[in-house]
Amino acid sequence: MKVLANDGISKSGILALEKGGFEVITTKVAQEQVANFVNENNVSVVLVRSATKVRKDIIDACPGLKIIGRGGVGMDNIDVDYAKSKGIHVINTPASSSESVAELVFAHLFSGVRFLHDSNRNMPLEGDTNFEGLKKAYANGVELRGKTLGVVGIGRIGQATAKMALGLGMKVIAADSFIPQVDIKVVFFDGQAITTTIVSQSLESVFKEADFITLHVPAQDGYIINEAALAIMKDGVGIVNCARGGVIDEVALVKALESGKVLFAGLDVFENEPTPEMAILMNHKISLTPHIGAATGEAQDRIGTELASQIINLLS
Question: Which positions fall inside the D-isomer specific 2-hydroxyacid dehydrogenase catalytic domain (predicted)?
Fold first, then answer.
């Protein structure tokens, strides 16, 4: 059987699938040509990340499709319920990228509190002529240790982020409508570990208490952080979103950054992907990455081998 990995798959995933008797196609097929390609090449499995969408039109047009797989967590680019109603298996890899995304959250947090994103823009331009001026401009850094991190969504990635925060000496609070409490176990290099329990509290209380806020939620119908939410946050709050675009009102965020209400933001995802608004891209208070939360070699290896394992178990 043939597998189309339209958004790519790790070498380890390819080898595992080939060992299981599958032919893996890594040709990048344009969105509008996916259905034709699947049918013409008798593809049984389509694997995607966040770029390719597998909607009702493709599902209806491809009666031979047996599995749709998402390399990662969120499946908002797949019509999951409709696919299942047609007898198609829908799989994903919810645990494989948690650590990588959590580390990116902290990359943005460290960047924000020490102005690295802006310093890295300005040092090449002014470092030789305005060194002392830049030194003064970036002199008011903030430590993360001892501060309160508000985690909105304490699922796998939220928990991985909480572990890193606890290891750094931060206080962690969380809001989650589906997880009332969770035990977080922080394991150290020598096998020792500590465990602490985080009890979910209201979203409003997290917004009011947190020094920094990180979002780990699926795509929503509306904004989680809007003008009203920003108004009740602490002055000088830092906000990071490595989850999904569209959960923050970007217009309200820019306004809050300009007023000083928000100290900085770290964004890996955007309302308008792949063409984020210029007001976001040019704002010197925003640390920016192009949706790369799971883009580490380790995460992609885990994603590839986990997808391969699920496919082999389902179709062998």
Answer: 8-315
Same domain, yes or no: 227 and 181: yes
Which residue in the list 70, 244, 250, 306 is annotated as catalytic? 244
Residue 127, phi then psi, degrees to nearest 5: -60, -30
pLDDT score at 44? 98
**pTM for this one?**
0.91
Catalytic residue among 49, 291, 302, 306: 291
Q: State the catalytic residue, choosing from 209, 271, 273, 277.
A: 273
Q: How far is CA 178 from the centre of its chain?
A: 19
CA distances from 27 to 37, 105, 207 (A): 10, 31, 45
pLDDT in tens, 173-191: 999 999 999 999 999 999 9
Active site residue 244: yes
Contacts of 115 (CB under 8 A, 6+ apart): 137, 138, 141, 264
Domain residues for the domain of 157 are: 97-288
Looking at residue 39, which CATH number applies to its domain?
3.40.50.720
The pair of three-digit structure tokens given for residue 30, joined into one six-digit string: 């344009």
The answer on 103 and 86 residing in a single domain is no
Burial code (b: 16+ CB inside 10 Å, e: under 16) for 8-31 equals bbbebbbebbeebebebbeeebee
Question: Domains in the chain: how many in total?
Answer: 2
What is the rounded CA–CA span in Å between residue 24 and residue 258? 49
Q: Is 73 a residue whose pLDDT tops 90?
A: no
State both tokens at 268. Answer: 């890996």
User: What per-residue string of b and e applies to 118-152 under the rule 16 or more CB within 10 Å gives b?
Assistant: bbeebeeeeeeeeeeebeeeeeeebebeebbbbbb
Same domain for 205 and 113, yes or no, is yes
Cα gap 19→49, rounded to integer Å: 22
Domain match, 103 and 247 both: yes
